[in-house]
Amino acid sequence: MNVIFAGTPEFAAVALRSLLRAGFGVPLVLTQPDRPAGRGMKLQPSAVKQVALEHGLPVCQPRSLKLDGRYPEDAAEAQAALQRAVADGGATVMVVAAYGLILPQWVLSLPRLGCLNIHASLLPRWRGAAPIHRAIEAGDAETGITLMQMDAGLDTGDMLLVERLPIAPQDTTGTLHDRLALLGGRLVVEALELAACGGLKPVPQPAEGVTYAHKIEKAEALLDWSQPAALLERRVRAFNPFPGASTLWGGEALKVWAAEVEARTEPAEPIEPAIGAGATQSAQPALPGTVLGADAQAIRVQTGQGVLRLLEVQRAGGKRLPVADFLRGQPLVTALGH
To answer: Are residues 5 and 16 in contact, defined by beta-carbon separation less than 8 angstroms?
Structure first.
C-alpha cells in the first residue's frame, strides 16, 4: 500500500518514520511551510520535512488547501501533486497527524480509502488542537490514541482503532507526547495493515462525553495563585515544555518548570498584621501568592487552596535551575505575581 502523508511536528515525524520502517511507499509528503525559529530566526523545515528529505520523498508545502481561499495558487499546486500521487504513485490512503491545515472535502475524498487521522486522545474527549495539554491540565487518569476516518467536522469522524495509555502523576506534556507519538506510529501501521485486507471496522463516536481541547495561548501560562494548588501543579506539567508556566518574582518573569502540592493538614503560617494594626489584632491567613519560606528543595507558595512547592525555575535569559541553585546569592521575595 502506498500512502500520502500529511503532518508537521515531531509527533507526526514519529508516525512517518514508522510507516517507512514498515515498508509503506510514500509518494508525497504534505507539511507546513518553513518557519523562522531559533536565536537567529532563520527559516527552519518542519520535523516531518526533515524526515522526508532524509528519505528522498517528494514534499509539498502549501499555505492552504482551499482552492477558493487566500492562497489559491498553493492549493492548486497541492491538488496537482495529490492527484499525481494517487494516479501515478498508487496512493490509496492519506495519513494525517498534527498537520495544522484544514482538509477540504476534495482532499478527504481523493484517496480511495480516504484520510486517516492519528489523534492523541480518547475521542470524543479532547477534540481539537491541544489534547495532550488539556488532558494533563484536567487531571485525566488516562488518554490514548484514536485512529479516525476523517470527515468535514473537527475530529468527528468514525473511530477505527483505539488504544489507551495511563497518565502518570509526574507526566508533563513533553513526556506524555513522546509516549503517545510512539503509540500513534505503531497503531497507524496496524491500521493500514488491517485496511489492506478490509479488516478495519468504523465505529461512530459516542454522542456523550464531547470536550474540546482549545489551542494553548501564552496568556494561559501565567499562574493565578488564587486557584487551588492541585490545579496549578497540573498546569505546570501541562505547559511544560510549551509555553512554560510563569509568575513574577520581584517584578521579573519567572518560569516554573516543576512543582508539587505540599501534603499538609494544618493551615499555612499566618502573615504579620498590617502596619498600624493593634497588637491584639489576630494575624490573618496568608494571602494567595505569599512566599511562606524556602529550603534546599522548594519555595513554598500559598495558593487559594493549599501550598504549592516550586522545585525547578528559570529566570528570563537564564537556565532551568533547582530551587537551591536559583536562590543562591539572591534574596527571597515575599510574594509572587508582583
So the answer is: yes
- What grid cell was written down for 1? 500500500
Residues 93/192, Cβ–Cβ less than 8 Å: yes
CA distance 141 to 135: 8
Q: How confident is the model at residue 105 (pLDDT cuts 50, 70, 90)?
A: very high
Residue among 54, 55, 35 at smallest CA distance from 45: 35
Letter string b/e over residues 128-150, b meaning 16 or more CB atoms within 10 A of that residue's CB: ebbbbbbbbbeebeebbbbbbbb
Q: Which among 162, 180, 166 has a CA at the least distance from the CA of 122? A: 162
Which residues are within 8 A (CB) of 43 and not within 5 positions of it... i.e. 6 or more apart?
Answer: 34, 35, 36, 37
- For 82-98, the DSSP string reads HHHHHHTS-EEEEEEES
Burial class (CB in 10 A: 0-12, 13-18, 19+), 231: buried
**What is the β-pairing status of strands 307-315 and 321-322?**
antiparallel
Q: How confident is the model at residue 198 (pLDDT cuts 50, 70, 90)?
A: confident
Record the cell numbers describing residue 131, joined without a space: 489534547
Angstrom distance (rounded) from CA 232 to CA 298: 15
Residues 6+ apart with CB under 8 A from 288: 225, 226, 302, 303, 304
Please state the pTM of the whole predicted model: 0.91
Which long-range CB contacts under 8 A does 241-248 form with residues at least 24 apart? Answer: 241/172, 241/173, 241/174, 242/173, 242/216, 243/216, 243/218, 244/314, 245/221, 246/221, 246/222, 247/222, 247/223, 247/336, 247/337, 248/336, 248/337, 248/338
| Number of residues written out for the chain | 338
